[in-house]
Amino acid sequence: MNRTYLLSSPRSNSGLNLMQKEEFLQIATKFFLVVSFLIISTNCIFSQPRVTDNRPATLGIEQGVESFGTPNFTLELLKSSQTVSSLQTTDAEKFEFTPHDLLSKRNKNGYYHLGDLNFRIKTGANGQWESFSTAANRASVKSLTPENATILAVADLANTLPESSPLQVIRYWEKASNGLALRFELKNKSNQPVEIGALGIPMIFNNNFDGKELDQAHEETVFFDPYIGRDAGYLQVVRLNGHSPVMLVVPYGKTPFEAYRPLTDDPTPQGTTFEGFHEWMVNSKAFAENEWKGSEQWNRPTSVTLNPGETHNIGVKFILTDKVENIEKTLIENNRPVAVGIPGYVVPQDVNAKLFLRYGQKIKSLEVEPKGALELSESGKTKSGWIEYAVKGKIGGRARLTITYADGLQQTVNYKIIKPESQVVADNGKFLTTNQWYENPNDLFHRSPSVITYDNEKKQQVTQDRRAWICGLSDEGGAGSWLNAIMKQLVEPNQEEIKKMETFVNQTIWGGIQYNSGKLKYGVRKSMFFYSPDSMPAGTYSPDINFKTWAAWNRQGAEITDRSYNYPHVAAAHWVMYRLARNYSGLVTKQNWQWYLENAYHTAMTMMDQAPYYAQFGQMEGTIFLLILEDLKREGYTDLAADLEKTMKGRAEHWATLSYPFGSEMSWDSTGQEEVYMWSKYFGFDEKAMVTLNAILAYMPTIPHWAYNGNARRYWDFLYGGKLSRYERMIHHYGSGLNAIPVLTQYRQTPDDLYLLRVGYGGLLGTLSNITEEGFAPCASHSFPTDLRNDGISGDYGCGYFGYAVNSATYIIHDSEFGWLAFGGNLSTPKNWVKVDLTTAAKSRIYIAPVGLWLTLDAGTFKSVSFNPKSKEVRIELDKLNEFTPKAYLRIESSKGNKYTSEGLTQNDRRAFEIQLAKEPVLVKLRQ
Predict the structure, then answer these.
(1) CA-to-CA distance for 864 and 173, rounded, in angstroms?
(2) Which residue in 225, 192, 386 sits closest to 305, CA to CA?
(3) What share of the chain is helix, strand, coil (3-state, %, to 5)?
(4) In 10 A of CB 883, how many CB atoms?
(5) Distance between CA atoms of 724 and 522, rounded to whole angstroms?
(6) Is pTM beyond 0.70 here?
(7) Quick one: which of 37, 29, 4 has its CA closest to 273?
(8) Which residues contact 408 (CB under 8 A, 6 or more apart)?
(9) What's the chain's Rg over C-alpha atoms?
(10) Average pLDDT, stretch 647-658?
(11) Region 62-81: what's the mean pLDDT?
(12) Which three-class secondary structure state does DSSP give residue 889?
């Protein structure tokens, strides 16, 4: 079965008739062409139109190309412009890194190509900033004679610049070992000093998959992620499928990666199939003083001044590696500085973090901004020469570490310091159930009581919006806040908050968001809010809001139950209430645990009946269905479990027939992979699980920067779930937390793969990174240098928090290079033991990698865990009892087949070990 074409797709209202689970694959196939046509032919109100550019061609494609070779690359340059026509690998596949297939559509003024240069300068003492671009007005460049055999092509770019430019720009394409280099020589030809306040090299690679099928897009196109780390910075260019080759763009000579500017002036329309291009900024002072004024940048903005006749060289080098896991190895081989942060670059204030640095030069100095935000102390050196630093976060917020090496090279590492996880979670829960708690018995849309979307800039609840779902308690953008609030109770149960959330589930979800009777029973509606002014009292709708959009659903549109993505939120709410009612005493009182678990089951099954089309795709938070299945089995609901398992297997079997089963209502997506991986792994479709994991690693990097480390790519949901609407790489949108689920699940199967743990944990803590001091959680933070800040509304944040809530854990590992490490705890080594005091909020999951031991608690919390590497003995310390937690329920699993037992402990009928808690911590010993 083919996939939908990758065109901008709206959130469709279309649906299909009820179907039996056994007929799923057959009917999905039958209706595919019809529904695909509906999706393709409907324009999304937020998407830019695909207009034809009828301006005359100026790039000079008709003049032909010149080809050049290096050991790893075949380079084609247009004879007219000497910009890149094609950049392919020299292996058998000959992978194309640039948008060569779009060259004839991008052949006019203003379209950027690899080889262009942007700069903004000020001439003389009192001059004004003037902007220049080699892409603005195309003209044939003057080809020059190469000085030596290492230079492939050289050209004077004067014809592409106004005569008023005081800079002469010579561009070189050069061989550089096995790689390829692009170098610019800038010379001040005037008789006055010239200050270069902005200098950028457009990074034009093939990240546009407009009009391509999913299979084609995964095979042909790339994503690229920046390490904005000054002289140590780089760009990693990775294929969508995660396969070899991976390209790295690194500095060539003194070319710091100071800022990363979106090239929004390129005429190529952005949309769900094209994120847009960016440029590597060497200097950014002129933008910081103007367009970016008031926004704190990742690095200090700089400029460079050229005296009359003075020359300045910058450039980048293109090198290859075989896979993302080997990026750091390849950087080291190319004498680039490398940093590895443990557990990452989001550092809770109670965590003893580590930073490992490696470079061929001694460290001259360390500087922290703001002063005192971080404390660092050198603590040793590894066998391969990594220098280890102990890192402690002291002042909340962003912190920049600048490392200066003996050769003058400067590397920056951007950190985010947060409160201890437990405090962040507690603040968030309080904010949600106070500031965002909506009680209005007279609400015409029956949304009371609930946790509703919040505008943190206006400091008020969002009760009306042009997008019905935002204030309608459904869809990701409307359900996000209450999902956040209810998942918080799984992490840190709070009686007062649970009382409110149980009322919400029983009064607003049941019979409101979710139908509780009739033929639509258990169906989940698209929105509680709707725009039907003819049937509502005068004055119902704000005159200040434009409701004349497709997103302002009318009553009929809001009551539809055919959008499968709404079901996991509701299923998760029922499941959390089941877990609280089953494992704690007196926290849940309105229904028994059976009612909540059965409702969770029926919600999952009804998704297949009432929302079958989109159910063929992976769902964000789809892991919830696996969690429900596991609990059905534990509780002895044999028939229900078998029914749910059979239904979900039909979906997994369908995915197994597809090359890349990651579609969704959007043309390309990064959230369905979570569920596709989990079910594929569960049903033994290991090959498909690995295809899925590789795709995740292609868009979820580990980079020495808190905003990008573990940040799963998402670039359109500010339109659907944010306040500042634009296509923009989102900083820790909900994809970070959700994609961390499969990454960390795979790590527990392959515990020697530290890369997976670093990526997954980056996504896990990235979920908490944007929560404010007061506890407000935005849908994401903005990455454009004009607005390096949180978005204004809560939106769909809760989906990511789901990932944090079900996946937060402490990991204890021994790495052959870095030694004993802890993620989610503070490690010490008393005598022959490795001890870790837990710092996670839930303190309910521990993985001990050397023996593959996975310890989880249904109730109770771990205080510490100790492991003896010689005897393999494990000692766990449980926190003392409280009013609602008289017992702990411990589960013991091992991915390495090691069986652990404890004397005096017996399993209950749900296969959990019951441990009576006491007024003091309880010690439990586990032995093989």
Answers:
(1) 57
(2) 192
(3) 30, 25, 45
(4) 10
(5) 34
(6) yes
(7) 4
(8) none
(9) 28
(10) 97
(11) 97
(12) strand
52 Cβ contact list (under 8 Å, min separation 6)? none
Q: What's the confidence (pLDDT) of residue 19?
A: 34
Measuring CA to CA, which residue among 232, 212, 213, 234 is closest to residue 224? Answer: 234
Spatial separation of the C-alpha atoms in residues 922 and 880, rounded to whole Å = 7
Joined tokens for residue 666? 């959007």
Place of tokens 């204890």: 812
**What value does the mean pLDDT take over residues 185-213?**
96
8 A C-beta contact, residue 794 and residue 777: yes
Q: Which residues contact 523 (CB under 8 A, 6 or more apart)?
A: 514, 515, 561, 606, 610, 611
Cβ atoms of residues 793 and 779 within 8 Å: yes
Helix (H, G, I), strand (E, B) or coil at 602: helix
- The distance of Cα 205 from the centroid of its chain, to the nearest Å, equals 20
User: Angle 693-695-696 (CA atoms, 0-180°, nearest 5)?
Assistant: 65
Reading the block at residue 878, the tokens are 């449980």
Q: Are 357 and 404 in contact (CB under 8 A)?
A: no
What does the pLDDT look like over 679-711, one tens digit per residue?
999 999 999 999 999 999 999 999 999 999 999
Three-point CA angle 665, 671, 674, nearest 5°: 130
Q: How far apart are the first and last CA of the chain?
A: 49
Residue 268 DSSP code:
S
Spatial CB neighbours of 172, under 8 Å, sequence gap ≥ 6? 151, 153, 154, 181, 182, 183, 184, 185, 315
Place of tokens 């005359």: 56
Q: Residue 477's closest CA among 237, 719, 683, 643?
A: 719
Backbone angles phi, psi at 697, to 5 degrees: -65, -20
pLDDT band at 50 (very low <50, low <70, confident <90, very high): low
pLDDT for position 347: 98
Q: What is the pLDDT of residues 816-851, one digit of tens each?
A: 999 999 999 999 999 999 999 999 999 999 999 999
Residues 130-148: b if buried by 16+ CB within 10 A, e if exposed: bebbbbeebbbbeeeeeee
Q: 832-859: string of b/e by CB count within 10 Å (b at 16+)? A: ebbbbbbbbbbbbbbbbbbbbbbbbbbb
